[in-house]
Amino acid sequence: MLLDREDMDIYTYDYGVCQTEQDFVTALNTFLVTTIGDWELYDNVSDTGSNRDYVWKSPGEDPDNYREIFIRVRAQSDNVYVYGYGSWTNVSVYGQEMYSSIYSYTSTNGEAFKYWMYGNKDFVCFTIFNSNDGNTYTSYLGLIESSYVPEDDPYPLLARGHRTSTHTWHADGYNYMHAPVASGSQRYYSINWDTLLDNDYGLRSNSLLFMPVILRNSTASNNEVRGRPYGVYQVDDKNAPKLAPIVTASGVFLCFKHGTVSSTDRTYAYGPVAADLDSFNM
């Protein structure tokens, strides 16, 4: 493949099985606070058997240029809801909420499920394997690599849910950020590289071309190019595995084909999360 930047960061990752959506919030808390470190469980909004609702804070990887990061995950009624915030005092007092009651969640269908997650002090990205429909759903919470200098975009925080497996990164409505050139929470979607990747197929001796997910504002009068989430790439589905690691010069990525129908606009690789296959598990 063409991704050969050997100086890329290798992200911390974890995986496991949860019996309930509340168990997942507990696993996520352990990953952020203990495995990655420097994330703080900032507020325990609710902690019952039917509603586990946590808020975390992180200084980020570059605290000199960006503000503290606030993310929230609520597990209730067989759903995992995701939120981003500009500030947080309590459940009634907060700033710059990034959330949609329509899109910012993933259903677990009330059954046990597998999960896989990776991240650092800037972000966490997690995938839920829904045992009911056999599909994968990926959410992202935290900073992205902004196309602006920090002075113009001091808080490029993304809150992404994944309600429907076929609506992936290029789908309008799932990615929420506060725009530096517009007021309020804005919807973003990725440039879709499917035509380019499909046309490129067969030219690289069965290797893969990785194209970065690049988010743009969905408002017709705006259409700013905001930046790209860390460690997320669109790949051609013909050479990509449905659910398997991909080894590159930069490290190991995990590939997902979201949805039951294989297509390039639903095929993504996440990482790198390990230096080689000997140090990778899932």
Overall geometry: globular
Which percent range describes the beta-strand content? 35-45%
State the end-to-end CA separation. 22 Å
Largest sheet: 10 strands, antiparallel
Order of secondary-structure elements: EHEEEEEEEEEEEEEEHEEEEEEE
Structural class: mainly beta
Strand order of the largest sheet: 1-9-10-11-13-14-15-17-18-12
Write down the domain tally: 1
Total strands: 22
Radius of gyration: 18 Å
Counting copies of identical and different chains, the oligomeric state is: single chain
The DSSP helix count reads 2
Low-confidence stretches: none
Overall helicity: under 10%
What is the arithmetic mean of pLDDT? Answer: 91
Summarize this structure briefly:
The chain is mainly beta and 282 residues long. It has helices at 21-36, 194-200; strands at 12-18, 40-47, 51-58, 69-76, 79-85, 87-90, 93-95, 105-107, 113-119, 123-129, 136-143, 145-146, 157-160, 175-178, 185-190, 211-212, 215-217, 225-228, 232-234, 243-248, 251-257, 267-274.
